[in-house]
């Protein structure tokens, strides 16, 4: 009986610790001011601009970002951008797959601005 109680307490502590750090394999919040994140987003947006007929955009500020380890790293980023021709301010969301062993690198897998 005592062993079951000890195991229950240990299980609870592990569950609480996992809850504080996020699920293993799940998305985790990252610092939106991280220079590496900014570089990855700028490179992905530049690639998107060159492949799209939409007005090119420029990243102004990153509001929120998460990363998730998949086959590489998947970043989900909410940011403010401006249209390079119109100057319109846009709220954007992009999901970027960073796989250092592939080319082009990184690549936007989802993108929307409104």
From TrEMBL:
Residues 1-19 form the signal peptide. GO terms for molecular function: cysteine-type endopeptidase inhibitor activity. Residues 22-114 form the Cystatin domain. GO terms for cellular component: cytoplasm; extracellular space; vesicle. Keywords: Protease inhibitor, Signal, Thiol protease inhibitor. It holds the Pfam family Cystatin. It comes from the Eukaryota. Belongs to the cystatin family. PANTHER family: CYSTATIN (PTHR46186). This is Salivary secreted cystatin 3. It comes from Oncopeltus fasciatus.
């Amino acid at each position: 009986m005592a062993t079951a109680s000890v195991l229950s307490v240990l299980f609870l502590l592990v569950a609480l610790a996992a809850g504080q750090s996020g699920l293993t394999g799940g998305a985790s919040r990252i610092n939106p001011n991280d220079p590496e994140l900014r570089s990855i987003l700028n490179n992905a947006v530049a690639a998107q601009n060159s492949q799209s007929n939409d007005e090119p955009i420029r990243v102004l500020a990153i509001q929120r970002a998460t990363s998730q380890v998949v086959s590489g790293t998947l970043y989900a980023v909410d940011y403010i951008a401006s249209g390079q021709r119109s100057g319109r301010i846009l709220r954007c969301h992009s999901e970027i797959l960073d796989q250092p062993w592939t080319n082009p690198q990184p690549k936007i897998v989802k993108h929307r601005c409104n």
